[in-house]
Design brief:
Layout (H helix, E strand, L loop, with lengths): L21 H11 L16 H24 L5 H18 L2 H10 L1 E4 L3 E6 L10 H13 L10 E2 L8 E7 L2 H12 L4 E9 L6 E5 L2 E6 L5 E6 L3 E3 L6 E3 L10 E10 L2 E8 L6 H9 L23 H7 L13 E8 L7 E4 L4 H9 L12
Parallel strand pairs: 4-13
Antiparallel strand pairs: 1-2, 2-4, 3-4, 5-12, 5-13, 6-11, 7-8, 9-10, 11-12, 13-14
Helix pairs in contact: 4-5
Protein name: Pseudouridylate synthase RPUSD4, mitochondrial
Pfam families: PseudoU_synth_2
GO cellular component, one term: mitochondrion
Length: 375
């Protein structure tokens, strides 16, 4: 029969400065006794001093980090918060799984038939091969039914820039694509865009017919930009224009414009490009009319790459600081698309505006043409 070992009594002398209460002494005596289960029962591991010190240091570092974040990040306004949310949403759309992006595009379809599909492209998502084009096969299956075998495809016709939003036209076959491109070259596809400009165009309606060319901008950060390459210039007397030799690499570019409303030094302008030159509308508004599009940080300055500088009254209405203007999105929206019908009537689509565009209009007190009974 196994017997428990006898208790060993130990006497220890402590300095007089340490006073132990009876409860403490009793606790220590209890801890010194063996457990009822005998030596086979494992004791709980005690918290070592080094572990406690490490835990205290981690909590202290976490507290200091949160304090620094609160001190360095001032409270943002409602407009700045919306800009941040838009930036986060755009980043999410560019990094989501292809099936998720295809489902989102499927919900934005505005028109579909056997020849074409028109969807509402979100802001910030490129229409090139890396994003929207890469998910078009999945979107095509969603439109035709996932369980149905189909030979149709979706091909981008008239692309949109990454930072623009609105009506994106897709063809269902190569033959339809060629027909649409031919119609576009003959100016038979009507495309109208709505933009918010910094400044009020004068006159309020007209045609900008100035060729565009790509040139290198020298400086601290050399880069390339599209710019104007006019065929006429003011003569030395200043009372007329003189025709100059056109550059061989310049592209003919024509843009119709019409001011729909203006307020606080900004305007809601309808643009109708008659040609398809790269960045045509942005260049014509910024350099021909001196009214750059709101959020166009590329063409607000010619000699440098810098965020768009806004007048104080505009910043105040938008609830922004100048240092935060770099996060303003480009306010360029493909509003209306009219495509001549092939075997039926014309296809006409009006594309709803994104939320950030509507909120900017409201802040600047710019009204839609419908609100003014203006067709």
């Amino acid at each position: 029969m196994r017997t428990a070992p006898p208790l060993v009594q130990m006497r220890m002398s402590f300095p007089s400065s340490l006073n132990f209460s009876p409860v403490q002494s009793q606790t220590q005596s209890t801890e010194a006794e063996p457990s009822p289960g005998g030596p086979d029962t494992a004791e709980k591991p005690r918290l070592r001093a080094i572990d406690l010190a490490r835990k205290i240091r981690q909590e202290k570092a976490k507290t200091q980090s949160e304090t620094r974040t609160q001190e360095t990040d001032p409270p943002v306004s409602g407009s700045q918060q919306r800009v941040t949310e838009l930036k986060r949403f755009t980043t999410q759309l560019q990094n989501v799984h292809p099936n998720v992006l295809a489902k989102h595009l499927h919900r934005t379809v505005l028109h579909r038939d056997k020849d074409v599909v028109i969807l509402n492209k979100p802001y910030g998502v490129p229409s090139g091969v890396t994003t929207i084009t890469s998910v078009l096969p999945v979107l095509c299956k969603m439109l035709d039914g996932l369980k149905t075998k189909t030979d149709t495809e979706l091909l981008p016709c008239l692309g949109l820039e990454k930072d623009s939003s609105g009506a994106l036209l897709l063809a269902r076959s190569e033959a339809v694509l060629e027909d649409i491109l031919s119609l576009s070259r003959n100016n038979q596809v009507e495309r109208k865009y709505w933009v918010i400009t910094v400044g009020v165009p004068v006159p309020s309606e007209g045609l900008i017919d100035i060729p565009i060319i790509e040139r290198e901008v020298t400086g601290p950060t050399p880069h390339f930009k599209m710019t104007l390459s006019p065929l006429f210039r003011m003569n030395e007397a200043g009372d007329g224009v003189t025709k100059v030799r056109s550059h061989r690499q310049a592209h003919a570019a024509a843009t119709k414009y019409r001011v729909l409303d203006s307020s606080y030094g900004c305007s809601l302008v309808e643009l109708q490009p008659l040609t398809g030159v790269k960045h045509q509308m942005r260049v014509h508004m910024a350099y021909a009319l001196a009214c750059p599009i709101l959020g166009d940080h590329k063409y607000s300055h010619w000699s440098k790459l810098a965020p768009q500088k806004l007048p104080e009254r505009v910043l105040k209405k938008l609830g922004l600081e100048q240092t935060k203007s770099r996060y303003l999105p480009l306010h360029l929206h493909a509003r209306r698309l009219v495509l001549p019908g092939r075997s039926q009537s014309d296809v006409a689509v009006s594309c709803p505006m994104p939320k950030y565009f509507i909120k900017t209009l409201n802040r600047l007190q710019l009204m839609f043409p419908e609100d003014k009974n203006d067709e």
